[in-house]
């Protein structure tokens, strides 16, 4: 194949007197052309394979160069231009830095990079004096000035002078020397406990003409005080203090803290390590090594002690029947921090358990481990018998037996059920039946020969796949009874008020009826209602009278009574009638006047007239109390005035209401009689207003009144 370029020559811009080299890389033979003419090696021009080197170039070397590569299969060309530059020093685009800052004792390099071809020679002046090189001050090969171990006397203006064949140029800049920054109070390593708050100090001395910036890093990462403000805060309040406060320290805050201080002339840092002690981490790899019907052998690995030795472990268990995790008994009873196995005891057979372990140290209790796998304990004979075995009631010829079911976690195995045993009270032989459902809580034995309300001895046992357990204690249950067969007699009713009536009756004679009487049911309905919608009131035991309330005034009611027991209700008595009394007066007392004399209050009011459909007024009730008390006193009178012997050192609240056979009527509005400082006073109250007026009088008000005792 013909040659192929691996590396082509490219254009070159060379300063006069420099050396340049061009090369190309195919393997065949090479030759070079300049501006189309063959180029031969001589003097400054060297040819080697695919490389052309021109030493100490001059302006005459500028031109177009071609590299020709050829073999018997073909020829290829590559072209590039050589430009030779010749110019005097020029600082127009690369002036010296106008102001350079450096600290005392530091190092500074003032760069001098004019454009020049060929490369110039450099000299420096400080102010107007030529700068001499010494062990601290040197001019680098590229013309830059380097000063080490800077002192205050090094401050001033510096001029770089560059010279070549084509001219000389210079540029000037200033060097300012500042005092160095020093850490006066650095952060120090600390040992703290979870929950504490601390301050890591970072205080410096610095040149106050310079701005200073404090930053903190934690384990290599800058602290973001906005994002992490819940725990980290910059404190200090001075430009020379950048203290770090860490609030409510957590285990995650342990590590290396670095305070970094930076000015425009220097940068320094100080570090401290923070050790955080806390409750232990969660134990690991909790495993159930062996399990029986009531025990489980556990093992685990310790977690992190968080810089405080683990003192003890606690084992907790959870089942589908427990409320969350519960502590369990173990052997050993107290598991010290160097023990990583324990036997859990007192478990229930045939229950699925999972376990976890919690570690503790002197600082506190740690997070629990992850739960172990779930394992079911082995089966065992049932030990818990049903609670609250009882019964009774039901329909005729039935014996009803009830109990509380045994919870699933106490059944000790699969195939759980109940054995119900019963016998007539005082006999020897038990009758037994099996109830195979673990959720059953009732058994009904039916037999037409069962005598009503007869006592039976009853007990309930348990069984499962492993066998039978024990029976509950024997209890006495009665068979179903018959309803009462006779009605109560001598039913009487009387109206007590517009809303209350009283009804009484005589029980049926014992030798004339069957069925135990547990109480009585009274039915009450208005004349315009159907008996099916009657109001029902039940009494218990031997009670043979009751009061029925919340009735309508001046209405005809029908009442009937019947006995009841657990089997149902007996026949009803004949209905009796009663009419409630007329309603009490609806108008309150009006025009209430009061007078005071010594320690007496005399009240007067207008007589209340009952309407045609209301009960006649039989008298009045005066209710009074101190304004600061809630208990009320009552005095009754059949007059329209009353005299109260009351001390005047308190405010009184008084109201008046009429009463009748139909009950109490409407009350007046409350009258406030204020604490009276003068010997005599008078006031009035309105049944439609709370307002009172009060006036001192100079004559004695005398009223003849009838007084009643409380």
UniProtKB/TrEMBL annotation:
<keyword id="KW-0393">Immunoglobulin domain</keyword>
<dbReference type="InterPro" id="IPR003599">
    <property type="entry name" value="Ig_sub"/>
</dbReference>
<dbReference type="InterPro" id="IPR013783">
    <property type="entry name" value="Ig-like_fold"/>
</dbReference>
<keyword id="KW-0325">Glycoprotein</keyword>
<dbReference type="InterPro" id="IPR003961">
    <property type="entry name" value="FN3_dom"/>
</dbReference>
<keyword id="KW-0472">Membrane</keyword>
<comment type="subunit">
    <text>Interacts with PTPRG.</text>
</comment>
<feature type="domain" description="Ig-like">
    <location>
        <begin position="89"/>
        <end position="176"/>
    </location>
</feature>
<dbReference type="Pfam" id="PF00041">
    <property type="entry name" value="fn3"/>
</dbReference>
<dbReference type="Pfam" id="PF07679">
    <property type="entry name" value="I-set"/>
</dbReference>
<feature type="compositionally biased region" description="Polar residues">
    <location>
        <begin position="570"/>
        <end position="580"/>
    </location>
</feature>
<dbReference type="GO" id="GO:0098632">
    <property type="term" value="F:cell-cell adhesion mediator activity"/>
</dbReference>
<dbReference type="GO" id="GO:0005886">
    <property type="term" value="C:plasma membrane"/>
</dbReference>
<dbReference type="InterPro" id="IPR007110">
    <property type="entry name" value="Ig-like_dom"/>
</dbReference>
<keyword id="KW-0732">Signal</keyword>
<dbReference type="GO" id="GO:0098552">
    <property type="term" value="C:side of membrane"/>
</dbReference>
<feature type="domain" description="Ig-like">
    <location>
        <begin position="180"/>
        <end position="269"/>
    </location>
</feature>
<keyword id="KW-1003">Cell membrane</keyword>
<dbReference type="InterPro" id="IPR003598">
    <property type="entry name" value="Ig_sub2"/>
</dbReference>
<feature type="domain" description="Fibronectin type-III">
    <location>
        <begin position="487"/>
        <end position="583"/>
    </location>
</feature>
<keyword id="KW-0449">Lipoprotein</keyword>
<protein>
    <submittedName>
        <fullName>Contactin-4</fullName>
    </submittedName>
</protein>
<dbReference type="GO" id="GO:0030424">
    <property type="term" value="C:axon"/>
</dbReference>
<keyword id="KW-0130">Cell adhesion</keyword>
<dbReference type="GO" id="GO:0007420">
    <property type="term" value="P:brain development"/>
</dbReference>
<keyword id="KW-0336">GPI-anchor</keyword>
<keyword id="KW-1015">Disulfide bond</keyword>
<keyword id="KW-0677">Repeat</keyword>
<feature type="domain" description="Fibronectin type-III">
    <location>
        <begin position="282"/>
        <end position="380"/>
    </location>
</feature>
<dbReference type="GO" id="GO:0007411">
    <property type="term" value="P:axon guidance"/>
</dbReference>
<dbReference type="InterPro" id="IPR036179">
    <property type="entry name" value="Ig-like_dom_sf"/>
</dbReference>
<feature type="domain" description="Fibronectin type-III">
    <location>
        <begin position="385"/>
        <end position="482"/>
    </location>
</feature>
<comment type="similarity">
    <text>Belongs to the immunoglobulin superfamily. Contactin family.</text>
</comment>
<dbReference type="Pfam" id="PF13927">
    <property type="entry name" value="Ig_3"/>
</dbReference>
<dbReference type="InterPro" id="IPR036116">
    <property type="entry name" value="FN3_sf"/>
</dbReference>
<feature type="compositionally biased region" description="Basic and acidic residues">
    <location>
        <begin position="370"/>
        <end position="379"/>
    </location>
</feature>
<feature type="region of interest" description="Disordered">
    <location>
        <begin position="570"/>
        <end position="592"/>
    </location>
</feature>
<feature type="domain" description="Ig-like">
    <location>
        <begin position="22"/>
        <end position="83"/>
    </location>
</feature>
<feature type="region of interest" description="Disordered">
    <location>
        <begin position="368"/>
        <end position="393"/>
    </location>
</feature>
<feature type="domain" description="Fibronectin type-III">
    <location>
        <begin position="584"/>
        <end position="679"/>
    </location>
</feature>
<dbReference type="InterPro" id="IPR013098">
    <property type="entry name" value="Ig_I-set"/>
</dbReference>
């Amino acid at each position: 194949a013909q040659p192929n370029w691996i590396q082509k020559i490219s254009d070159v811009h060379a300063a006069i007197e420099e050396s340049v080299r061009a090369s190309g890389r195919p393997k065949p033979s090479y030759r070079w052309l300049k501006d189309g003419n063959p180029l031969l090696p001589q003097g400054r021009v060297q040819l080697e394979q695919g490389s052309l080197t021109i030493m100490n170039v001059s302006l005459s070397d500028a031109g177009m160069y071609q590299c020709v590569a050829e073999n018997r299969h073909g020829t290829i060309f590559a072209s590039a231009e050589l430009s030779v530059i010749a110019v005097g020093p020029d600082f127009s685009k690369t002036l010296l830095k106008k102001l350079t800052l450096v600290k005392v004792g530091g190092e500074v390099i003032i760069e001098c990079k004019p454009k020049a071809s060929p490369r110039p020679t450099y000299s420096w002046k400080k102010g107007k004096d030529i700068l001499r090189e010494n062990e601290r001050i040197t001019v680098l090969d590229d013309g830059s000035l380097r000063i080490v171990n800077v002192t205050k006397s090094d401050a001033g203006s510096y001029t770089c002078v560059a010279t070549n064949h084509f001219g000389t140029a210079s540029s000037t800049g200033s060097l300012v020397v500042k005092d160095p920054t020093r850490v006066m109070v650095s952060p120090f390593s600390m040992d703290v406990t979870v929950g504490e708050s601390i301050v890591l100090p970072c205080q410096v001395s610095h040149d106050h003409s310079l701005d200073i910036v404090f930053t903190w890093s934690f384990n290599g990462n800058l602290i973001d005080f906005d994002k992490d403000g819940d725990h980290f805060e910059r404190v200090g309040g001075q430009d020379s203090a950048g203290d770090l406060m860490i609030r409510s320290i957590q285990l995650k805050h342990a590590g290396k803290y670095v305070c970094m201080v930076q000015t425009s002339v220097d940068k320094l840092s100080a570090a401290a390590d923070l050790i955080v002690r806390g409750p232990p981490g969660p134990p690991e790899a909790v495993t159930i090594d062996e399990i029986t019907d009531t025990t489980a052998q556990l093992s685990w690995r310790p977690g992190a002690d968080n810089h405080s030795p683990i003192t003890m472990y606690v084992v907790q268990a959870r089942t589908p029947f427990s409320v969350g995790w519960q502590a369990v008994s173990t052997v050993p009873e107290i598991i010290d921090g160097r023990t990583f196995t324990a036997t859990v005891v007192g478990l229930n057979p045939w229950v699925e358990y999972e376990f976890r372990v919690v570690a503790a140290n002197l600082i506190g209790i740690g997070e629990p481990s992850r739960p172990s796998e779930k394992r079911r304990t082995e089966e065992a004979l049932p030990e818990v018998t049903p609670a609250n075995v009882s019964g009774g009631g039901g329909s005729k010829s039935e014996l009803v037996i009830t109990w509380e079911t045994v919870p699933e976690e106490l059944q000790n195995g699969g195939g759980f059920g109940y054995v119900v045993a019963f016998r007539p009270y005082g006999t020897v032989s038990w009758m037994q039946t099996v109830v195979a459902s673990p959720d059953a809580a009732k058994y009904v034995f039916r037999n037409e020969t069962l005598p009503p309300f007869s006592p039976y001895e009853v007990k309930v046992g348990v069984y499962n796949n492993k066998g039978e357990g024990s029976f509950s204690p024997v209890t006495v249950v009665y068979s179903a009874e018959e309803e009462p067969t006779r009605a109560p007699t001598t039913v009487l009713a009387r109206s007590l008020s517009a809303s209350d009536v009283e009804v009484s009756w005589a029980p049926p004679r014992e030798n004339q009826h069957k069925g135990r009487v547990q109480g009585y049911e009274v039915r009450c309905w208005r004349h315009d209602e159907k008996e099916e919608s009657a109001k029902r009131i039940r009494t218990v035991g031997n009670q043979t009278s009751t009061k029925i309330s919340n009735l309508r005034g001046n209405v005809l009611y029908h009442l009937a009574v019947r006995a009841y027991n657990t089997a149902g209700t007996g026949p009803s008595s004949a209905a009796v009638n009663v009419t409630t009394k007329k309603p009490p007066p609806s108008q309150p007392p009006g025009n209430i006047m009061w007078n005071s004399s010594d320690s007496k209050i005399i009240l007067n009011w207008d007589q209340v007239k009952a309407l045609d459909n209301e009960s006649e007024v039989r008298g009045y009730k005066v209710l009074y109390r101190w304004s600061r008390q809630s208990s009320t006193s009552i005095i009754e009178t059949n007059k329209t005035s009353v005299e109260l012997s009351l001390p005047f050192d308190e405010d009184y609240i008084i109201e008046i209401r009429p009463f009748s056979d139909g009950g109490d009527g409407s009350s007046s509005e409350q009258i406030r009689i204020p604490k009276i400082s003068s010997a005599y006073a008078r006031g009035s109250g309105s049944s439609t207003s709370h307002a009172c007026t009060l006036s001192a009088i100079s004559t004695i008000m005398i009223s003849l009144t009838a007084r009643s005792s409380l």
